[in-house]
């Protein structure tokens, strides 16, 4: 039996899932996605119990949900502290944890966009109903990143190569900043 490994796995999965929901909420608000979409409603209802009290301390703007980002950083630090304490090692200094959390946040945002574009590409091959809530959300999340590329680089013979350029650009950022 490995109770320490099981607990590490459980902590990692639960915190990562909630971080994913918080990033989704941040991005949905940033791109001004359809609030009445069932997926948007799920994300809002799942994150409201944590974000509503935090918004009293960390106000945001109408577009940027700062409270979500602050909570993501706090959760990353909390996860590191919990996992390090489970392993029996010493807790790193606070400035080092904050820098690690901010780098992790940047990496998570780039990975989030990368996989959102990749999912949208796969959805375009399957050609689902454009009114499907998931398809609509994926379009709303990725369009602000892909539209500027599409304006600069028109379709080539009916093929839209903007996802490829965006994916390469995101990979370039990851390599450039060693995320």
How are the SSEs placed, and which strands pair?
Layout: H1 3-30, H2 38-57, H3 66-87, H4 94-126, H5 133-152, H6 162-176
Shape: globular
* Class inferred from helices and paired strands: mainly alpha
Question: Main sheet?
Answer: none
Q: State Rg.
A: 19 Å
Describe the structure.
- This protein is an all-alpha fold.
- The protein has one domain.
- Helices cover 77% and strands 0% of the residues.
- It has helices spanning 3-30, 38-57, 66-87, 94-126, 133-152, 162-176.
- The protein is globular.
- The mean pLDDT is 89.
List the keywords.
179 residues, mainly alpha, globular
Offer a quick outline of the entry:
With 179 residues, this protein is mostly helical.
